Prior knowledge:
By secondary structure, the chain is α+β, with helices and mostly antiparallel strands. It has 2 domains: 6-48, no CATH class; 54-162, Glutaredoxin (3-Layer(aba) Sandwich), CATH 3.40.30.10. It contains 6 helices and 6 strands. It has helices spanning 9-15, 44-48, 54-64, 81-93, 114-119, 150-162, and strands spanning 24-28, 34-39, 68-73, 101-106, 130-135, 139-145. The strands form 2 sheets. It has a 4-stranded mixed beta sheet with strand order 4-3-5-6, sandwiched between helices. Helix 4 packs across helix 6 (150-162). 22% of the residues are buried.
Amino acid sequence: MKIGDPAEKEIVSKYGVQTAPMPLMLAVAPNGAVTRGIPQSFDEAKILASFVSPATEKCLKVLQEGKLPFICVQGETTKLNAEALKGIEDFKAQKDFTKMTEIVTVSPTDPAEATLLKQFDLAPKTGEAVTFFLARPGALLGKYKGATKKDTIAASLAAAMTGGGCCGGGTCAPGQSCDKK
């Protein structure tokens, strides 16, 4: 593919690679999420690292759509599952957050998700539900063990938006660039 080729304009625009260093390999998951971009040169190890778990794939897609994912780590081996989901669902039910948040549930015992859990320093034998609240570019807005409360989640988002977590302290909404106020 050549960036300047009019026949490639749609794909260049879709992935925003107009000024990317070439050659460039983009790994795209079945759901359309870009899992990795490898500029210049790549080898088998880099290509293999582009394959991600199902939950990582979902989270990347949510983030790339400008939304905020909640990763809810819970299952048969964890306690307080319903209590952990309650605050998240209450937060998501608010008019301003319904369309901009997504819930991704992960079992702590799912071997396919071991790499994701390791990234968050979470042992598969966790005894209590744990929730992670993320924003682009992969910033952790909050980590909640056990029950969640919508006010606590809202406070985490507000702190990120005013305390340097969004646009270096600016006031932007998720999916909005810093120059749009």
